[in-house]
Amino acid sequence: MIKAGSSFSHNGKRGTIGAVISLKGVLYAVTVSHIFRGERDRLTVDGNTLAVTRILEDHHLALIELPPGSEAEITEFGSPAELELAKLINDTRTIHYCRIANSGASLLFLGFQCHDMPGPEDSGSPIVQKGKVIGIMTSATLDTCMGFAISSKILRNLKV
After folding, report:
1. 49 bridge partner residues
2. For 42-90, what is each residue's pLDDT tens digit?
3. Residue 7, strand partner residues
4. How are beta strands 26-32 and 61-65 bridged, if at all?
5. Counting CB atoms within 10 angstroms of each CB, which of 61, 95, 129, 159 has the fewest?
6. Do residues 73 and 3 make contact, with C-beta atoms less than 8 angstroms apart?
7. What is the pLDDT of residues 129-139, one digit of tens each?
8. Are residues 60 and 12 in the same domain?
9. Are 21 and 74 in contact (CB under 8 A)?
10. Structurally, how many domains does the chain consist of?
C-alpha cells in the first residue's frame, strides 16, 4: 500500500513519499522536488515504474500520479502546534524527537536532537503530530540541529 512514509527508488537511491492526495479524483504521491531533474523523471513506487507528473517550483514539491486502482491511503493533514513534539516517520526509521520551533505560512522550522538528525534519504518524509501529517521534511542543517519542512497548509491547498 502506498502511503505517507512509503519509499520509492530513483536513480538507485531511496526516497520517501510525504503524502498521498486526491486532486480532482486522481491520486498523487507528493514528495520534495530537489531529488529529481524535472518532470518525466522515472521512479519506482510499490513495484510500478512511474514518472514525475508535475514539479511545483514555488513550493519545492513533486507530484507523481498514481495509476488508477492503486492501493493507496490518502493522507490526513493536521495543523502544526508550535513548541510541541512531532515525529519524522518513514518506512525505515522514526525520529521521535522533533520539535516544531516555528510555523510560517509555508514552512515549519524544526529542532532535532543533534545525535538523531535526518539523513539525505529522509528528505520528503512526513512530519507527524497527533497521528496527522503536518509537513514534509525538505532539509536539515547539521551544525545547528535544525530542519525545514513544507507545511501542511500548502499541501491542503494544492490545486493542479
Report:
1. 44
2. 999 999 999 999 999 999 999 999 999 999 999 999 999 989 999 999 9
3. 16
4. antiparallel
5. 159
6. yes
7. 999 999 999 99
8. yes
9. yes
10. 2
Please provide residue 118's backbone torsions phi and psi, each rounded to the nearest 5 degrees. Answer: -65, 145
The answer on 45 and 93 residing in a single domain is no
Q: Which residues pair with 28 in a beta bridge?
A: 21, 65
Phi, psi of 111 (to 5 degrees): -115, 130
13 in a structural domain:
yes
As a dihedral over the C-alpha atoms of residue 24, residue 158, residue 11, residue 96, rounded to 10 degrees, the angle is: -120
Do 17 and 48 lie in one domain? The reply is yes
**CATH code for the domain of 149:** 2.40.10.10
Contact 64, 52 (CB under 8 A): yes
Verify that 49 and 98 share a domain, yes or no. Answer: no
User: Domain of 19?
Assistant: 6-65
Residues 6+ apart with CB under 8 A from 37: none
